[in-house]
Amino acid sequence: MSATERLEYRKIIRAPRQRVFSAWTKPELLTKWWGPGEVTCPEAEVDLQVGGKYRLANLQPDGQVIWISGTFEQVSPPEKLVYDWNVDAMGVASTLVTVQFNEHPEGTELILVHERFSAPAVRDMHLRGWGGCVDKLARMLELQIPPPRSIRQN
Fold first, then answer.
1. Does residue 49 contact residue 75 with C-beta atoms inside 8 Å?
2. Which of 9, 29, 22, 84 shows the shortest CA–CA distance to 54?
3. What tens digit of pLDDT does each residue of 38-97 get?
């Protein structure tokens, strides 16, 4: 597989792996962070099982909604997801996404591999999109981390 067909994105998120996995797979949490930049997600559907479908609405700043959908090929909570990726407005062939949620001393190491792109421009557009999405996810989860408990001295 050539570099043209594949992207890899890594990020340390300062939150426990189960919370990161849940935010990635629960519709009520997805709608709080999904979408790069000014793109939001007013609707998300997830049937989290092998063969189950997902569907995400990407509401663009101009009011247009672009749907992303696919089918789960592997579901291993809270460690890994593999699913196909279809963007209705792009008219491009289905691609494949693998997301690993690894325990890390600082929280969770998220490793996202997106492959089977037909052209470098499509791959690069998705790399920017994933970066924007994952940054929003990290901000949301990191803001929810409870402060460390203080130890009372008597």
1. yes
2. 84
3. 999 999 999 999 999 999 999 999 999 999 999 999 999 999 999 999 998 766 789 999
Who contacts 136 (Cβ-Cβ below 8 Å, separation ≥6)? 33, 34, 35, 36
The token duo for 90 is 């792009």
| Pairwise CA distance, residues 43 & 112, whole Å | 22
Please tell me whether the overall predicted TM-score, pTM, comes out greater than 0.85 for this model. Answer: yes
3-state secondary structure 31-71: HHHCCCCCCECCCEEECCCCCCEEEEEEECCCCCEEEEEEE
Cβ atoms of 71 and 53 within 8 Å: the answer is yes
